[in-house]
Amino acid sequence: MSLDYENDGALNEKLIEEVLSQYPDKTAKRRKKHLSVATASGEEVAEEGKVLSECDVKSNIKSIPGVMTIRGCAYAGSKGVVWGPVKDMVHISHGPVGCGQYSWSQRRNYYIGKTGIDTFVTMQFTSDFQEKDIVFGGDKKLEKVIDEIQELFPLNNGVTIQSECPIGLIGDDIEAVSRKKKKEHNKTIVPVRCEGFRGVSQSLGHHIANDAIRDWVFSGEDKHEAFETGSYDVNVIGDYNIGGDAWASRILLEEMGLRVVGNWSGDATLAEIERAPKAKLNLIHCYRSMNYICRHMEEKYGVAWMEYNFFGPSQIETSMRKIAKHFGPEIEEKTEKVIAKYRPMVDAVIAKYRPRLEGKTVMLYVGGLRPRHVITAYEDLGMEIVGTGYEFGHNDDYQRTGHYVKKGTLIYDDVTGYELEKFIEGIRPDLVGSGIKEKYPVQKMGIPFRQMHSWDYSGPYHGYDGFAIFARDMDLAINNPVWGLYDAPWKKKAVPSTAIAAE
Amino acid sequence: MPQSAEKVLDHAPLFREPEYRQMLAEKKINFECPHPDQIVTDQREFTKSWEYREKNLARQALVVNPAKACQPLGAVFAAAGFERTMSFVHGSQGCVAYYRSHLSRHFKEPSSAVSSSMTEDAAVFGGLKNMIDGLANTYKLYDPKMIAVSTTCMAEVIGDDLQGFIENARSEGSVPQDFDVPYAHTPAFVGSHVDGYDVMVKGVLENFWKGKERSEVANTINIIPGFDGFCVGNNREIKRLLDLMGVSYAFIQDASDQYDTPSDGEFRMFDGGTKIEDVKAALNAEATLSLQHYNTRKTLGYCGEAGQATASFHYPLGIQATDELLMKVSEISGKEIPEAIRLERGRLIDAMADSQSWLHGKKYAIYGDPDFVYAMARFVMETGGEPTHCLATNGTKTWEEEMQALLASSPFGKPCQVWAGKDLWAMRSLLFTEPVDLLIGNSYGKYLERDTGTPLIRLMFPIFDRHHHHRFPLMGYQGGLRVLTTILDKIFDQLDRETIEPGMTDYSYDLTR
């Protein structure tokens, strides 16, 4: 279902002008290119549906020093996003202790396994570089680290080396170490050159991590010759199983009659990565972080890929039908049954929550696929998106965003702390969805907030089961009585609470 | 279908439903290529053995689950304790995102800091331009009174010179000539967050004290708290005690308001903190006291050079440690410890006496920052408990010796082993081979609780999975009461859980304990 609304473009233009006026001239000139208001577009695109607007901003450009960018680094993109969730491998944060420590267990990539025995996701393995490692190089230490991993964690199915900044600066040869140790231990060892200073954000880290799969996993011999393939084999790519997202998606795909042979990379084993080229179709959820390897698999192994969106019933239905169409009538028939099976539950969720959320406005600032993918899920609940932006999007992300946002929507790329605060102040949305760094400033302002990276410790949000949780969470954020208590009654007239008690 | 609109199930109950259990079991068998269950079970049992422990403790290169962070985190925390001060971390930008997230997840508060966002070109040419542009932007946009510069390991490896860069930026007009830009080099590959704290506080003092003479010695005391996740509760408690004594003092580095701003509709990027005027005046203080020795070794050295008397403590928590702090303050200030404080002390003793039977002989494993571990072990011994493993990943040889001396001072410390430089995977082996009743540490300890069944008490930074504990003090007699109650609650809850089964164990499910 698509809501019909338009945002206050004039107000948003004014807000952009105001924030730019506060920067030094040189910085204002640079930031101007990253901020815009979505304009109307009449362009019809046959396959993707109607383009609703154009989000014309520059993106994937270096952040400006000193402005408080919200972005992370290439290491975060590789270890934190792509590789970290692969559960039966040990991922070494190679360098000083901090990077691994701050990213330890923070992305909620759910998995099943005996941690420390056969799975290792919620652990922090580091070479804990000391000054002497910087001075004399860390390759010898890395060798020993890998040996000690084999000794103490023998059930690991491989090791990845997640480079931190110093590695690339001191000229270590982690590739040579990897080749040597691969031979010695007869295990997959993957060096990843994701030093934090590379690129402009997490994004290059995703790309480098994708390339490492190509070069260090796919390049090996086929360990799975005996694996029996089927005509409905698919991989789910770019679902990190945050709060169980991939599981809530898998259950639907299986009910549709598909066989999910690999899930990248939430709850994945190395085997699922290795076998991926044998599948018939790659279903890609987070396009930004994993499109590279999908393109490679298409080119080299002829595996087709398809983007889909499992946030909210409108997109789920559209996506399931699109996927089913690829496989033909048998799957299409099953898919209609799945849609029919879940419809009463979805209708009940909407009937319960839409009246409590109708017309509420939302601002988003996240990464990956979410700045566009979650929009329709909000609209399914009658909510309106007034602003959105990407931490590390590229031009193709903003093009795709035009299919989701309405005219007049405020668009901000690599937003700065200052801009986001001013935009939120100016628009006063009913809800902001962003990250942990943004959560508390926004809540101090009296505006409800949900973390849209970690699902604020809830989730899953994917699939039909996830949509019910999503709806509940947006309701509990917006309709909590605390927002009505901010003003001391003796200071000024208290604003009456708009909260609705939970039913 | 497990999900319904009436009763929405999120991850915890949802995936326990049969549909999901079956799906995941099939995923494992069909697609994961798992190790056979027996092999996994055998390995799991092996990790509990003495043989595994020996291998584990013999590790020379690999670090697993360390209990320490890197220097710049300490510097960012330190800067947050000064009036309207923006942290500016020179180097890669991802680091700053990490420090901010880490601090916000613990305090449940905003954490502001900026980066000079150095990328590959800066790796080649140095980050001078980033410093010049960065300082200009920060100054214009966030209107700070001071910008405190620290470094990530990238800037350190390429050897950027902060002093020269900052001077350059000044001449380029990034900030006014007389604007305060204290700095500290904080390489992540040296020491830990407690050292980053140390050099940043020292950097601030140097910024204001360098070239100045102590004019007249004012009868005041400087207090430096050290890196402390409980700064909100602790600093306020220490100030309350000093106020009760009528002592003139200055808290140097006080993040208690910065990490505890009210929700009233306004986002305060800056709140509270030591006033710049007070930092300047602090040069003339009679003495500087550090509440955490290992957080302030360089800073106290500098204060000593400046001519001040100095003394350091190990996180004054419990009876004797608080006694020592108060007596030192009394000695320096000439102010008596008032009767009101003696009564407070008596009330904590009273509580300890009331509960002693539940605490006597309990064995503890304690880990965390060096000063905290020292304090905790000491308090545990005061309650009749027996520290069994004391571990600090960032503990030094000197710390180890100091710990040994402390433990030797009491019969309750005799069986204890001290583990400097070891990590929490080592602790796992220790807990399996030489078990204890209680584990004291931070949120990371929950994995040890899961694996070894040792009940965890969270009393140290970072605490991500429990809320608001840091708003209450651990230091002083009041703090001691809080720690005591927390330990007792854990013991009683555990006992109740063990005796709750009707008709089986509930004969011991006593109403009064």
Short description:
The complex is a heterodimer of chains A (503) and B (513). Chain A is α/β, with parallel strands linked by helices. Helices cover 43% and strands 14% of the residues of chain A.
Main traits of this protein?
A: 503 residues, alpha/beta, 20 helices, B: 513 residues, four-stranded parallel sheet, globular
Explain this structure to me?
The complex is a heterodimer of chains A (503) and B (513). Chain A is α/β, with parallel strands linked by helices. Chain A contains 20 helices and 18 strands. Chain A has helices at 9-21, 25-32, 74-83, 98-103, 131-136, 139-152, 165-170, 174-185, 202-216, 245-255, 270-274, 287-301, 313-327, 329-357, 370-373, 375-380, 395-401, 417-427, 436-444, 463-478; strands at 35-37, 39-40, 44-45, 49-50, 53-54, 90-94, 125-126, 158-163, 188-192, 233-239, 259-265, 281-284, 304-307, 361-364, 384-388, 410-412, 431-434, 449-451. In chain A, helix 6 packs parallel to helix 8 (174-185) and helix 9 (202-216) packs parallel to helix 12. Chain B is built from 21 helices and 13 strands. In chain B, helix 18 (397-408) links the parallel strand 10 (386-392) and strand 11 (417-420). In chain B, helix 11 (193-209) runs parallel beside helix 14 (297-305) and helix 17 runs parallel beside helix 18 (397-408). Chain B is globular, with a radius of gyration of 25 Å. The mean pLDDT of chain B is 97. At the A-B interface, helix 3, helix 4, strand 7, helix 5 and helix 6 of A face helix 2, helix 3, helix 4, strand 1 and helix 6 of B.
Q: How many strand units of chain B?
A: 13
Name the poorly predicted regions of chain B.
none
Helical content of chain A stands at: 40-55%
Main structural class of chain B: alpha/beta
Oligomer: heterodimer
Give the overall average pLDDT of chain B. 97
Strand order of the largest sheet of chain B: 11-10-9-12-13
**What distance separates the N and C termini of chain A?**
25 Å
Query: Tell me, what's the shape of chain B?
Result: globular
Shape of chain A: globular
Number of helices of chain B: 21
